[in-house]
Amino acid sequence: MLWLTIVVFVSLAIAVLRGGRLVNLGDIELRAWWLLFAALGLQFGTSLLPNDDDLVWLGVSMVLFSFVLLMIMVILNWSKPGMGITGLGVLMNFIVIAVNGGMPVLSGAAEVASGFAVSTPDLSATFKHVALDESSSLTFLADVIPLRIFGIGEVISLGDIFLALGLGVFLEYELRRPRRYFK
After folding, report:
1. pTM over the 0.85 mark
2. 64 membership: H or E segment, kind and range
3. What b/e string do you get for 146-167 counting C-beta neighbours within 10 Å, with b at 16 or more?
4. Contact 155, 110 (CB under 8 A)
5. CA end-to-end span of the chain, whole Å?
């Protein structure tokens, strides 16, 4: 997720250039912020599951539940700028994963992102991704956008772009808020 790190860095830089202060990061208040770490833990937990066809339902369920936790956090913080866009991105990713039993990945995009010729991406170690084929639904929401940054290739989706844009708007707003000196 190098691209998401770059989005955060660019958002922080834009906020500082527009008069924001990095010290405001300490004043960010999010309801149920711990749901973010629970969701990331669930997604990381899928990598610890053995690669067994009988456990595919468990891995996909863990991924989908992590997106439900993210949506709950977004809904609880709906009034904050950027949360609507973030929620749209999370919802797009949730829907395409739920419909296809995993996020479909376009092999051509994986080839462009990796810089190597691959016939199909190696998705054997993940429950979150599946190969995009003729049976895939909602392919416009799938991982079809190749991205190569500093020699590291990734394939992202439209939902990822909305999620990153919403996160950027949220961070930029939070850093430009006037600092509260008396709490």
Report:
1. no
2. helix 56-76
3. bbeeeeebbbbbbbbbbbbbbb
4. yes
5. 35
